[in-house]
Amino acid sequence: MMSFTTVPALLALMQPSSSNGAFQQVFMFGMIFVIFYFFMILPQQKQRKEHEKRVNEVKRGDEVVTSGGVVGEVMHIRETMKDGASVKTPTDRITIKSADARIVIERSSIARVVTVGTADKTT
After folding, report:
1. Are residues 15 and 41 in the same domain?
2. Residue 25: which residues within 8 A CB-CB, separation 6 or more?
3. What range defines the domain where residue 40 resides?
4. Which residue among 13, 46, 74, 92 is the one 20 to 30 A from 104 at the CA level?
5. How many domains does the chain have?
6. How far apart are the C-alpha atoms of 119 and 114, rounded to whole Å?
7. From first to last of its 123 residues, what are the pLDDT tens digits of the chain?
8. 15-43: b or e for each residue (b if 16 or more CB lie within 10 Å)?
């Protein structure tokens, strides 16, 4: 049977020491960072890379939606020339046809690419 004098001694043992408390706090913040990284940062990076890949693979005939909400079909792509070779950059000029108008946009303003003959690919 436990006496009343051993209870305070056991409670004192259960209290974290000053060095142990600091370690626990650093460990807790580290675990919170790891959770945020795997559930928020990593999926966002994956989604951004996927979007950049789709935008760089846009070709004539694809349907695109701009960041301003204009929906149109790609008619012409003028890529940047560097050292005699065409290079895909965010500032490439893309001509799209929307209704009866032709609009020139930059590659970086494409919000979504809908490839002809496939389902809607959202970002």
Report:
1. yes
2. none
3. 6-51
4. 46
5. 2
6. 7
7. 555 566 566 556 555 655 677 788 888 899 999 999 999 999 999 999 999 999 999 999 999 999 999 999 999 999 888 888 888 888 889 999 999 999 999 999 999 998 765 555 554
8. eeeeeeeeeeeeeeeeeeeeeeeeeeeee
